[in-house]
Every structure is written in C-alpha cells, then in structure tokens.
Write the structure tokens for this entry.
Amino acid sequence: MMSGAALAKAATIAVRYSLIRRQSGKKDEQETQIIDYYIQQYRIFPQIANSYALHFAGVYLIKLLNDFRTGSAAGNYDLLPEVISFIKEKKRKKKKIK
C-alpha cells in the first residue's frame, strides 16, 4: 500500500502542475493547459490507474492474510490455497522481472 500512496502523491502533483501550467503556440491564441495535450494525458492517467490498483490490491492482501491468520489459529485452513496461489504468482512475476 505504501507504493500505491507514493504513486498517488506523484500523480497528484503531476496533475495539479498540468492544470496550472499553460502553453501557447501563437500570440493571438489563448494559452492551453498542458493537461489538454494528449501526450500529457497518456503519461499521467495510467499512473493514476496504477495507484488505485496498487491500493486496492494491498487492501485485499492485508485482509486475506489477516483472515488466514485468524482462521488458522482456530484450525480453519480454507484460505490456504488462495494464499499459496498468491505467493506462487508473486514468485513467478519476480522471476520474470529478472
């Protein structure tokens, strides 16, 4: 969840700057906000989506692990396959990055 929060802060700064900063091509034209440029949106909007994805994945994972911990303390291992699946997927992605 920390990485999602850091990315959200960075994206917020970028969006605020893009809304304030203006740029014009000709003297007679009104200045355009740089957020109106497609390339600026192309760079910023996916990062906003990534920050939401990281946040909600973190919330889900914390809930899953807390539920597993309380359940396993009571002898209930129903969430074990889901936890193992998550760990295997994380290891697979880590190997892919290297």
About this structure: The domain at 2-97 is CATH 1.20.140.10 (Butyryl-CoA Dehydrogenase, subunit A; domain 3). The two ends are 23 Å apart (CA to CA). The chain is about 75% helix and 5% strand. The chain has a mean pLDDT of 87.
